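Journal club prep — side note

Before the paper discussion, L.F. wants everyone to see what a predicted structure for a comparable chain looks like in token form. Sequence:
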Amino acid sequence: ASGLSKIGSLQFDSAGDLFVTGGDAGDGGEGQGFIDEFVNSGGTLSSTPNSIATGLYNPGGMAFDSAGNLYVGIENSLQTGDGQVYEYANNGGILSSTGTEYISSLSHPLGVLFDNSDNLYVANFTTGIINEGAGTFVSGLSYPTFMTFNSLGDMYVSLYLNGDIDEITPD
């Protein structure tokens, strides 16, 4: 794929379709962000995306839950960093084009991740907090961006400014 604007995140769904967030707030503050889908047909991704959502303000990380619903971190203000995670519901294999606010009062929500038990984790870039759902999972991190789990359930978090990767082990 080419010609996309300021790609933010990539995520495959269970059918092998590729989802992409990108864009930014635009010169006038209006949302120019998007979520696009590149459909997988026989192992080949389409060259032209289907638009899932447009007019978003700085969409970031995204993840699918086990039911195929898509969750996207969206920053609502570059100045304040206020943000939410929106859910795009899976309706029989077709994602809703309208997101529903799932978690609010986040701060630059970049990383979005589910564990094997469908617990949602969100990395808040400016506050250094990773939320588990609406609660705090861990705090005191230096600009967390993206996360992943290994096969043992340990979380690995990339820390933007100092270039570290921290390991967080479950209790």
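L.F.'s comment for the group: The two ends are 42 Å apart (CA to CA). Keep this in mind when we get to the figures.
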